[in-house]
Automatic annotation (TrEMBL):
Coiled coil: none annotated. Pfam families: Bac_DNA_binding. Keywords: DNA-binding. The keyword DNA-binding applies. This is Integration host factor subunit beta. Belongs to the bacterial histone-like protein family. InterPro entries: Hist_DNA-bd (IPR000119), IHF-like_DNA-bd_dom_sf (IPR010992).
Length: 91
C-alpha cells in the first residue's frame, strides 16, 4: 500500500472527499516527521513504535575505489513492530 492508496481507503471507508482524506493523511505524516525530527518517540499501541537511532562516526570504504573514508555520525528513524501487528502478520 502506498500513500495514495491509503488516502483512497480512508476516503471510501469514512465517506470523505479525496482532498479531505489527503489533508488528514498529510497532517498525520507531518506530525510524525516533526516529532521524530525533534528527537521524540511515536508509539501506536498494537501497531508499533518509531524512534530515532543515533549512529557514531566510523571509518568506511568506498566500494568503487577501495579508498578509506570517514562516515559522519547520523540519526536515522527506526520502526519496531508491536506485538499485535507481529502476531496478525504471522498468523
Amino acid at each position: 500500500m502506498n500513500k495514495s492508496e491509503l488516502i483512497e481507503a480512508l476516503a471510501s471507508r469514512k465517506d470523505l472527499t479525496y482532498k479531505k482524506s489527503e489533508e488528514i493523511v498529510n497532517i498525520i505524516f507531518d506530525s510524525m516527521a516533526d516529532t521524530l525530527a525533534g528527537g521524540g518517540r511515536i508509539e501506536i499501541r498494537g501497531f508499533g513504535s518509531f524512534v530515532v537511532k543515533h549512529y557514531k562516526a566510523y571509518m568506511g570504504r568506498n566500494p568503487k575505489t577501495g579508498e578509506v573514508i570517514r562516515v559522519k555520525p547520523k540519526k536515522l528513524p527506526f520502526f519496531k513492530v508491536g506485538k499485535e501487528l507481529r502476531e496478525r502478520v504471522d498468523s
